[in-house]
Design brief:
Helix content is 79%, strand content 0%. The chain is mainly α and 256 residues long. The chain is elongated, with a radius of gyration of 21 Å.
């Protein structure tokens, strides 16, 4: 923390001498962002540092609106701010909406940039969750997240864990549909296909194991859900979660 504070002081001193130095503002933003991440690690409120980072990124972009990497880091910092707001009871949706817009601007400058696509997908996914929590309709955001995760997978089929995340977005989209009186079955089928793809690439993917079990269970496919518990237990034998789920599923009765 002390070294980051000294770095901030050095960047601010340099900018006092040369306020038009675009990269100086960007580097100040990166240090402020790192301060916020370090505060989170110490369980402190990081929001003021994230906002200071955003102000520095804005100063860099005011001098060069076409600065692609600066646009990306502004967007990703907005995403992180949204996650902090959500954890601390703030307005997460506003930050996630701003992040989605900034990732879009980044993609205009750098079409097909996989990190920007993945970042926008995550921001859309988090925005959907915030809207759902507030009682608003999150279905368009979940669907947009599914599309962006798909674009990431087209560009990089083995990277960034996007099969798992796309599967989770499909699963939650189906759950919203079912909650609102519709049929989420087609979304659950898509989710299960993605969880299977994730596990084929990484058999130890804990999140994919868990969401596959829960999706099968809640689709009434209990025998398959039991087998999925067995597969997860084989990969993670010290984790009691799988036996807990298996017990719950057996208590529900026979599978379909």
């Amino acid at each position: 923390a002390e070294s980051l504070a000294r770095a901030v002081a050095d960047h601010e001193a340099a900018l006092a001498r040369n306020p038009g130095f675009e990269l100086g503002h960007h580097h100040l933003g990166m240090v402020r962002r790192q301060q916020a991440i370090a505060a989170q690690a110490r369980r402190l409120d990081p929001r003021a540092s994230f906002r200071a980072a955003l102000a520095a990124f804005d100063a860099a972009l005011a001098r060069n609106p076409g600065f692609g990497i600066g646009r990306y880091y502004k967007a990703d910092t907005l995403r992180l701010l949204g996650e902090a707001e959500g954890a601390l009871g703030g307005d997460a949706a506003a930050s996630f909406r701003a992040a989605v817009a900034e990732f879009g601007a980044s993609l205009v400058l750098r079409p097909g940039h996989s990190s920007s696509l993945h970042g926008r997908a995550i921001a859309l996914f988090r925005l959907a969750g915030a809207l759902e929590k507030a009682g608003d309709d999150p279905r368009p955001e979940y669907e947009a997240a599914v599309e962006d995760f798909g674009a990431v997978l087209q560009a990089d089929p083995v990277g960034l864990g996007s099969y798992t995340y796309r599967g989770l977005a499909c699963e939650l989209r189906g759950r919203v549909e079912a909650t609102r009186g519709g049929d989420g079955g087609a979304w659950f089928v898509r989710a299960l296909a993605d969880f299977d793809s994730a596990l084929a690439r990484d058999p130890g993917d804990r999140l994919a194991h868990e969401r596959k079990i829960l999706t099968l269970r809640d689709s009434g496919r209990r025998a398959e859900a039991e087998r999925a518990c067995d597969a997860a237990l084989e990969r993670h034998p010290a984790d009691a979660t799988w036996e807990k789920y298996r017990g719950e599923i057996r208590a529900l009765g026979g599978g379909k």
